[in-house]
Amino acid sequence: MRRQFKSNNNVVYSCKYHVVWCLKYRRPVLKDGVDARLKEILLEVARKRRAEIIELEILPDYVHLLVEVDPQFGIHRLVKLMKGCSSRILRQEFPWLRSRLPTLWTNSYFVATVGGTPLATLREYIEKQKHV
């Protein structure tokens, strides 16, 4: 498979990351429509920041994401925006979340560069997380 590169005005890049973050206290609240709305929000944030979500899996208590982002924007800024926007919007649209959780997400997250791992392998791993 040929490697695909993206570019902005002055950088040609291929920066793919595997990102995982959890809900505060690992409360299983990402279900019953919250998960679908979260997916819409994350896709919208990525679109606005010209990042590409390659794979996304939302489980009741955490999120798995395979994403490509401009290195000048940075993965840390993208994750911060995704967590911040989604927390604000979900807590507005689903008021019962405010009573269950003081904040939606933990402060931490996991991120790893994809490197030479085939994307098909990572996609398969993320897709199978629901069945674990």
From TrEMBL:
Gene Ontology molecular function terms on file: DNA binding; transposase activity
Domain of life, per lineage: Bacteria
Residues annotated as domain Transposase IS200-like: 12-129
Stretches that traverse the bilayer: none
Pfam entry (one): Y1_Tnp
GO-annotated biological processes: DNA transposition
Gene3D superfamilies registered for this protein in UniProt: Transposase IS200-like (3.30.70.1290)
Protein name: Transposase IS200-family protein
Source organism (scientific name): Ammonifex degensii (strain DSM 10501 / KC4)
Highest classification ranks of the organism: Bacteria, Bacillati, Bacillota, Clostridia, Thermoanaerobacterales
